[in-house]
From TrEMBL:
Gene3D superfamilies: 6.10.250.810, Leucine-rich Repeat Variant (1.25.10.10), Pleckstrin-homology domain (PH domain)/Phosphotyrosine-binding domain (PTB) (2.30.29.30). Pfam families: ELMO_ARM, ELMO_CED12, PH_12. It comes from Scomber scombrus. Keywords: Apoptosis, Cytoplasm, Membrane, Phagocytosis, Phosphoprotein, SH3-binding. Signal peptide: none annotated. This is Engulfment and cell motility protein 2 isoform X2. One of its GO terms (biological process) is phagocytosis. GO terms for cellular component: cytoplasm; membrane. It is found in: Cytoplasm; Membrane. Residues 317-486 form the ELMO domain. CDD domains: PH_ELMO1_CED-12. InterPro entries: ARM-like (IPR011989), ARM-type_fold (IPR016024), ELMO_ARM (IPR024574), ELMO_dom (IPR006816), ELMO_domain-containing (IPR050868), PH-like_dom_sf (IPR011993), PH_domain (IPR001849).
Length: 721
């Protein structure tokens, strides 16, 4: 007979004594259980003790968290959180250096525990740590442990960052600005400053006065701290208030850049990130990839204001830009003197430039997006790549009317399309690592990207022999060419050009045909019958592959961790498919993680269901910033008895499909991901082709001539066994 659901069998350790094996009744008060355990070892004052996990993070067990205890868990009797906090607070203020160092080391470890953190903070522990930092008397390991404990305690969100003093900020900023500082101190200082900027509007101003992006650039050459430095740059960029985003440049070639943008756009920063990070001698880890993605998104978001700015047809400065486009293309020095003649010539030239409104082309830029951003791109092409610009315009103006590619209309629509592809104006997605190295290879990467794509559009238009009626079809092909090329992650703009050359219109048609064949190949009735016969065995094959992948396990990043010391956890299915093992890791693993290192487990028999997306508990709890589309698409949760959840955010769409399909297969439910449908179609098509090839190799004996009969409809039945 199985034990009652409220009874868990655990082992409890105490230094120097034999472990106690007890059956813990989850309905009994925790204080009563602790008193019984203390009596077993003849320990008095049970109220001074508590239970902690013996493995993993070794968190304290509370009435709220005790439901997570599983059968077979090893616990440890320890002094209570309040008593531990009091003792450590006294020891870190002692005069003995060795005793203080040991206390700070232990404090740095215990501060990650929310129960201990609450007690320590209630005893004014954060203020004590802040004063130790402000005194400037701590160095080396002692200072590193102090900053670690401070950061861990603040990360619980129990107290507001606004309570931090200016002298503390100056001291932390001083560590960042000093030329020779221990790496561990520098990492924690940068992480603390980042948290200040992200969590407090007031502290942003104070930090910005002490730390500039220029000062942080020097840290990017150090591989140990470059992730922390870029994270702080991103935080300063993200939280910069509007009053620092209003400094315009007078040069018409310059975009409406912000003060922060002018710093981020400088060549020095870009080249250091390119040479020391992207092209460095170390592989880029997930957290660094995320920070590069965030920097890329924030940089492109500087285009949003121009993208959403309509052109004012009465603004002479803006109209002058259109005149400049005409002058460069047609050499406007030979303009006729008469007003009417000049107006007629302008109308003709604007038509040749491909504007929709030939009389007043300014009206073409009143739609947002792309607004004035399209005009900025066109001017950049005309100024910087003048020969290309003139060639495109004159080449199309000399074609037959029905085959000319309207440059103005194409440039405007292409700008809008590129804004959609690169998600200009959208906030970064937490957990996304989709950065493009080529955008870090040029000071004007956006404009150069546009110039490459407008030449692609003109080339594709000619390959398709398109007319004005085909405009939307051409834009669809160009979008497909660009997205396919970006998916290949070209490392430079030259590589992008090479990828696009290989994706001409003929290749796009071939790829479409190939993909279409893999989706709806062989639609005749006998082939459909064969497909239906093959499908169950292919599904079983896919199911076994998914379960095997779950047995290998996967690493997941902890959602919401804003600090640069990456936190991970690993989950894998037992080889007999009966238990899910999981546990925290200090770093991303290289390969398979042994079951012994995964301290927690869930019996598969306890799993009630698997939910995805916005139905996940951890997605309902997240803020609007984190509750974005990409994170929602990668989120899933395992619901198990009694009312517990294990929450996941997959690192990518592939892992999401593998895990959701595998869990559904584990529970005997239908696997319904896009990956399964794709795998099913691919494998069935391959198997069908193999079987049909076998049929083609069969020698069929000659049959006697058929007896003539009246015409009728025939039903053919094929036996492929």
């Amino acid at each position: 007979m199985p034990p009652p659901a409220d009874i868990v069998k655990v082992a409890i350790e105490w230094p120097g004594a034999n472990a106690q094996l007890i059956e813990m009744d989850q309905k009994r008060p925790l204080t009563s259980i602790i008193r019984e355990v203390c009596d077993g070892w003849s320990l008095s004052g049970s109220e001074q003790f508590a239970l902690r996990y013996a493995d993993g993070p070794q968190l304290y067990i509370t009435e709220q968290s005790r439901s997570e205890i599983k059968n077979g868990t090893i616990l440890r009797l320890a002094i209570s959180p309040a008593r531990a906090a009091r003792q450590l607070l006294e020891r870190i203020q002692s005069h003995g250096i060795d005793a203080r160092l040991e206390a700070l080391k232990e404090l740095a470890k215990l501060s990650a525990d929310p129960t201990f953190a609450t007690e320590f903070i209630n005893m004014e522990g954060i203020g004590t740590l802040a004063r130790l930092v402000e005194s400037g008397t701590h160095f080396g390991e002692m200072l590193a442990f102090t900053l670690t404990a401070f950061l861990e305690l603040m990360d619980h969100g129990i107290v507001s960052w606004d309570l931090i003093s200016l002298s503390f900020i100056k001291q932390i900023a001083g560590y960042v600005n000093q030329p020779m500082v221990d790496v561990s101190i520098l990492q924690r200082s940068l992480a603390i400053l980042e948290s200040m900027v992200l969590n407090s509007h007031n502290l942003y101003h104070r930090v910005a006065q002490e730390i500039t992006v220029g000062q942080l650039i020097g840290h990017l050459s150090n591989q140990e701290i470059q992730t922390y430095a870029i994270a702080l740059i991103n935080a300063l960029f993200l939280k910069a208030p509007e009053d620092r985003r209003q400094e315009e440049y007078t040069n018409p070639l310059e975009q409406h850049l912000t003060e922060m943008a002018s710093t981020l756009a400088q060549k020095h920063l870009r080249s250091i990130i390119l040479n020391h990070v992207i092209r460095g001698n170390r592989p880029i880890k997930a957290e660094m990839a995320h920070q590069l993605y965030v920097l890329q998104v924030l940089t492109f978001n500087l285009l949003e204001e121009r993208m959403m700015t309509k052109m004012d047809p009465n603004d002479q400065a803006q109209r002058d830009i259109i005149f400049e486009l005409r002058r460069i293309a047609f050499d406007g020095e030979n303009d006729p003197t008469g007003t009417e003649k000049r107006k007629a010539m302008y109308t003709k030239d604007y038509k040749m430039l491909g504007f929709t409104n030939h009389v007043n082309p300014a009206m073409d830029f009143t739609l947002t997006p792309p607004g004035m951003l399209a005009l900025d791109n066109m001017l950049y092409l005309a100024k910087v790549h003048q020969d290309t610009y003139i060639r495109i315009v004159l080449e199309n103006s000399s074609r037959e009317d029905k085959h000319e590619c309207p440059f103005g209309r194409c440039a405007i629509e292409l700008t809008r399309m590129l804004c959609e592809i690169l998600q200009v104006g959208e906030l970064p997605n937490e957990g996304c690592n989709d950065y493009h190295p080529m955008f870090f290879t040029h000071d004007r990467a956006w404009e150069e990207f546009f110039c490459v794509c407008i030449q692609l559009l003109n080339k594709t238009w000619k390959e398709m022999r398109a007319t004005a009626e085909d405009f939307n079809k051409v834009m669809q092909v160009v979008r497909e060419q660009i997205t396919r090329a970006l998916a290949m992650k070209p490392s430079s703009l030259d590589q992008l050009k090479n990828k696009l050359r290989g994706l001409n219109y003929s290749e796009i048609l071939r790829l479409r045909q190939s993909e279409r064949m893999s989706q709806d190949d062989f639609q005749s009735p006998p082939i459909i019958e064969l497909r239906e016969r093959i499908q169950p065995e292919i599904l079983e094959l896919i199911k076994q592959q998914r379960l095997n992948r779950l047995c290998e396990g996967s690493c997941f990043r902890k959602l919401g961790n804003r600090r640069r010391q990456e936190k991970f956890w690993f989950c894998r299915l037992s080889l007999n498919h009966k238990v899910l093992h999981y546990g925290d890791l200090d770093e991303s693993p290289q390969g398979e993680v042994p079951f012994e290192l995964l301290s927690d487990k869930i019996p598969v028999s306890d799993i009630k269901s698997v939910v995805t997306g916005k139905d996940c508990p951890h997605m309902k709890e997240k803020s609007a910033l984190k509750q974005n589309k990409e994170v929602l698409e990668l989120a899933f949760s395992v619901l198990y008895d009694p009312d517990e959840t294990l929450n996941f955010v997959a690192p990518n769409k592939y892992e999401y499909c593998i895990w959701t399909d595998g869990l559904c297969a584990l529970l005997g439910r239908e696997m319904g991901s896009d990956l399964t449908r794709s795998d099913l179609d691919t494998l069935i098509s391959m198997e069908m082709k193999l079987r049909l090839l076998d049929l083609e190799n069969i020698t069929i004996p000659e049959a006697p001539p058929p007896v003539p009969k009246e015409p009728s409809s025939y039903n053919f039945t094929y036996n492929y066994s």
